[in-house]
Amino acid sequence: MDTSRDHRAQSGTPDVAVKLARLQEMLRSCGSVCIGYSGGVDSVFLARVAADALGAERVLAVTGRSAAYPAVQLEQARECARRFGIPHLEIWTDELSDPNYAANPTNRCYFCKTELWGRLQALAAERGLAVVLDGSNADDVADFRPGMQAAREHGVRSPLLEVGLTKAEIRALSRRLGLPTWDQPASPCLSSRLPYGLAVTPERLQQVERAEEALRALGFREFRVRHHGDAARLELAPGELARAAAAAPEIATRVASAGFTSVLLDVEGYRRGALNEALGMIQLAGTGAGRPQAAGRLLARAGLARTRVRAAGHALDIAAVAAPASALDTLAGLAPALRALGFRFIALELTGAARKPRHDGARVAHAAAGA
What pTM does this model have? Predict the structure, then answer.
């Protein structure tokens, strides 16, 4: 859907103009700032407005680099800093060496941001910069964001949130300022591609990044590659699912080359906050070994009697269905019923190699549909 008219309207409304004026005044009152700068929509916008309001000499945009930080995001951060004259510094962070972070608990982001903000506070003091800022916006309070607690503990301010700017408003204002990030898809850290409880390792992060580079090379724009042990579950924008199903063999080959033995296409597509969907679910007892059989019977009743369903993933949480690409819409329609059986995600299996022994020791259950 073309949202350009909405972006123009939002950026020109009196309410947004008032928020922008308040943001500029707030930044001027800070005197000088050190900004956590990822190269995403929010941080690029904040850095640009800060440089305009304070003068570039009173602004430092700092990017924390680690194995969890996407290379494509770093390129964007560097390009925007060069193009708009924003002083930019890259530092290396070491969150992966923290066992609390590496264990990948539900509050993983807290440990990452604790590392980052501690480093930036020390850097700001060393450089004589008065305030450390982040790019949190007004929409972020509605999501599960443990990293915001770390920001509060380190005295980090969130100007975009404080003046009430939403993501849509920031995109609209970014477009008006000529920022190339105005329509950039969200790009959180690579660790967010791993389900909670699956340990964060450099090797797994590299697998995700290589697989996402493969999708980008095929022309897909908004997506996530979710790492589930030896299975990669692909979440693509709903409007691109049909094209992905048609290109299944090539996608499977390229993604598998990143080190996955199974490539799964999520039939419901990418949606923000999918990682946190399971937080509110009641977990079923046991291994779920009977779920594939029940799901197989459900598929058979829908006319997919020759398909196969298996439980896949780190916690046997994916209904991975071996079916023709033409069954994509049928599977999407069955998603609520399959989820009622205890599966978190419903996916079309693009590869047949998933029956190999799993590398991470997780169990995989197989059953013929209708058995």
Answer: 0.85
